Amino acid sequence: MEPTTSTPPAAPAKATWPAVAVPGQPGAHLQDAPTRGLDTAVEGPAEAEVPPPAPSTPASEGEAILDELRATIRRYVVMPSEEALTAATLWAAATHLQTVWQHAPRLAVVGPARRCGKSRLLEVLIEAVHEPLITVNASAAAIFRSISEGNPPTLLVDEVDTIFGSAKVAEKNEEMRGLLNAGHQRNRPTLRVSGPNHDVQKFSTFAMAALAGIGDLPDTIMDRSVVIRMRRRARSEKVASWRYGRDDLAVRALRERLAAWLASVRDEATALEPKLPVDDRAADTWEPLISVADLAGGRWPMIARTACKAMTDYESGRDQDGGLKIRILTDIRKAFASVGNPPALRTTHLLDLLNADPEAPWSEHSPKGLTPRGLQILLDDYGIGSGNRRFPDGNQAKGFTPAQFTDAWTRYCPPENPAAEAPSATSA
Questions:
Q1: What kind and span of H or E run contains 348?
Q2: Which helix (H) or strand (E) holds 191?
Q3: CA distances (Å), origin 85, targets 29, 126, 230
Q4: I want to staple 40 with a disulfide (CB 3.0 to 4.6 A). Which of 15, 28, 182, 303 is the partner?
Q5: What are phi and psi of 263, to 5 degrees?
């Protein structure tokens, strides 16, 4: 009789992340991923490949529940990237430990137009988060009166563009913007005078919030948010239909398991101080999500940090392109470099270089392009101004030196050669 040979199990399919998975750009999805989307090895930017756990190693309770929630969101919503899917999963889970966190991250679900899946994502999240408080349009007074001091609800606002969609409308809703900004951090109550004796009453503002709408939210809110940039589903992208009375009940059952697991690790969560790949406000915003990932274990700590770094880098890049006060610094650095980094540049010469760039916004900054006065306004916040300089031809004129910009370039601009500073996948 021929000897029996055992066939080794097939290696798991390898799915590859894009070098930087940018929401809304081709290649942001794992291709040919299984329904659960969690049975493949994943490579993150600047991360070494981490194989899935061996079949003999059972997943922890937290890991299994997060896996199931992630798969559930994927089932009903086409997310813009795998990082966005990870972030939405962790944000929903983090709402169940709001009393532990020092900050309440906002989830900004934005898209360029209708039918991008924003409302559908909110529908799924409503059934997964802690004590959802859903509204389409509400006053700031109604919202802060609905937020309890001890264990606040999770605020979910759809069609938030009706509140902040235009400058005129947003101006009327400054109180709402202030509430959402203040509620990102503990101990930022709003004060109101009430009752016949005009007593001052404190109202808590601290609560996690998901905000869905067309277009970006005000900058101060976006800066406190995990940003999910939705896009329209392509014809080749299929999702399951969502039916109330069927699918919502299944997600609610998952919510109960999620809440029970997180309650069991509450003390551990309170003592946790996770290492984060970002700092400042981004760290405040992402810390609850990273903490949940660390509590779950498995590969969640790795994919959570990958999502954090990729998504915050992307939003930072948008700010460099969209914020003129940041853009002017990067473009002035390019202007100096384009003429060999001289010790000084005449203001007129610098403006000529800036206005000549067809892809920059400066030629349309005013009917005459960017003017000396316009340039000075953009630089005022950095304490940079033109001065009288003597140039090689012996003439004096208003101008700038590179030394004036060194500190601002270091603090606000991306590295001139980011590829040289980024760790390679082999060195991670």
A1: helix 347-356
A2: strand 190-194
A3: 10, 16, 11
A4: 15
A5: -65, -35
Residues 241-286: tens digit of each pLDDT: 999 999 999 999 999 999 999 999 999 999 999 999 999 899 999 9
61-321 has CATH 3.40.630.30 classification: no
Q: How far apart are CA 165 and CA 213, in angstroms?
A: 9
CATH of domain 325-418: 1.10.10
For helices 118-128 and 247-264, angle between their N-to-C axes, nearest 10 degrees: 50
Q: Contacts from 258-267 at CB under 8 Å and sequence distance 24+?
A: 258/65, 258/69, 258/92, 258/93, 258/96, 258/128, 259/96, 259/130, 261/61, 261/62, 261/65, 262/62, 262/93, 262/96, 262/97, 262/292, 262/295, 263/96, 265/62, 265/295, 266/97, 266/100
Residues whose CB falls within 8 Å of the CB of residue 377, separated by 6 or more in sequence, listed in order: none
Task: Provide the 8-state DSSP code for 41.
Answer: B
Residue ranges per domain, the chain?
A: 61-321, 325-418
Q: Is the model's pTM score more than 0.70?
A: no
Q: Are 58 and 51 in contact (CB under 8 A)?
A: no
Per-residue pLDDT of 369-386, as tens digits, reads 999 999 999 998 889 999
